[in-house]
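As the next step, I selected for study one protein, both as residues and as discrete backbone shape codes, as given directly below:
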Amino acid sequence: MKIGVLILCYNNETDLNQQMIEELSAVAKNIKFCFVNNGSTDSTIDKLQILKEENESDITIIDIKINKGEGLAIKAGVRYFFNKINLQYIGFINFKDFNLKLNFNPLFDLILDSKDELIAYNSKPARSRKFKRLLIKNVFSLTDFFEYLKIDLKKEHLKTIA
């Protein structure tokens, strides 16, 4: 199963770090990542470019010059994945939803290990979801998916919601 993940950024210059990119690079062979800079007014795009160059990672960066909302940022990333990479599922998450102390590897390993749950979750009727489908039918919110799996993203370590 081919999975892409859009990470939406807005003024996250101070939050982006070398360790995070290294961790994403470690799982990038199984999951394709695309950072979408959504009109940041700080140096988020510069920091993303530096981190990408330093790691020679297969991570894509899309720069939207003016913030026109989360929906536009998601659509830009979905269009990129749709046109450049053949993926079965595309998840999106806002960078602010990540706890900065969170280890990314278990989080994305969880996605890969939860293929059956992802298929079941994605086959739920759209009316029972918190978001509307976008360009293609297999685009989903990672935040909602983790909530479905009873995973609390705000915890320092991945723990199930009590």
Remarks:
- Residues 131-135, 156-162 have pLDDT under 50 and may be disordered.
- The two ends are 30 Å apart (CA to CA).
- The chain has one domain: 3-160.
- The longest strand covers residues 31-38.
